[in-house]
Amino acid sequence: KEHFLSCYWSVNSPALKHHDPSLPYLEQYRIDCQQFRLLYHLLSPWARCANKDSLALWTFRLLDENLDGLINFKEFACVLDTMYYGSFTHKLKLLFKLHIPPAFTEVESLSPSKGAQLSKEELIHFSLLN
Asked: In what residue span(s) does the EF-hand domain sit (predicted)?
C-alpha cells in the first residue's frame, strides 16, 4: 500500500520515471530510499534496534548496486528473506556487508585507538568471499 500510494498519488515519483514494463514483474516496481526506510521499519526483524535508521540506509545502499537511488521489489524481498529465513552464516555475512563500503561509508572515521583494524581493501576482499 505504501509503495502504490507513493507511486501513483505523488508528484514526480522517481519510481514511475524509471518504470520499464519490459522487465520481469518483480523487477518493474522500484522503491526509493525513503520508501525503503518506511517498509524496512514495518517489516524488518531488525527494525526494533536503536540503530534502525542507519541499518535501513546501509541496507538500501548495499542493494542499490547501480547507484540510481532505486531498488526493485525482488531485491527487497531477497534481503527480507535473508533476515527472516537465512542461515546464521548468511545473516552474519549480511551484517558484515552492511558495515563496509559501499553500504557503510564512514570507515575512514573509525578511531585508530581501537587497536589493529583491517584496511578498506581487506574489508572489501573479505566481503567478496563466498
From this structure: 51-86
